[in-house]
Amino acid sequence: MWLDMTKLAHSLVGPHQDLVAIKYFTSRIINDPDKQKRQSLFLDALGTLPKLSISYGHYLEEGWICKKCGNLSKIYHEKQTDVNIATELLVDAYQNSFDDAIVISADSDLTAPIKSVCTLFKEKTVLVVFPPGRSSFHLVCCPGNTFT
Known about the structure:
Elements: H1 5-12, E1 22-26, H2 33-46, E2 52-56, E3 58-65, E4 72-79, H3 81-94, E5 100-104, H4 111-120, E6 125-129, H5 137-140, E7 146-147
Parallel strand pairs: 1-2, 5-6, 6-7
Antiparallel strand pairs: 3-4
């Protein structure tokens, strides 16, 4: 299923707010050719949307040894995506690029940067929107924010 990020962003913006930018953060899949192809098609489609930019982290491949049988497998970890979101949020707040930010995530690693924006920039708000079926206790308890 494809998601129109522009439509989603406009549905979250209030009637007296202007949508300035849409920033999508991801990492390119490296371990599954079928998923890579689908992701590339999706990212190519996103690249055609106005006001949307894509920032990339990366996948880290690590060896993993099964404790039961001793077999060696490869596992993959997405890296830098949450750090890229946090950095961009803080830089944008510092550069006064927004009054109200919307973060769509349930990643509790974003709690500290969101709290920092709300603490350091009292006039700014951060709306955290959880993807369907996901939430984060830490983000819900982040003071100074509104959540849906």
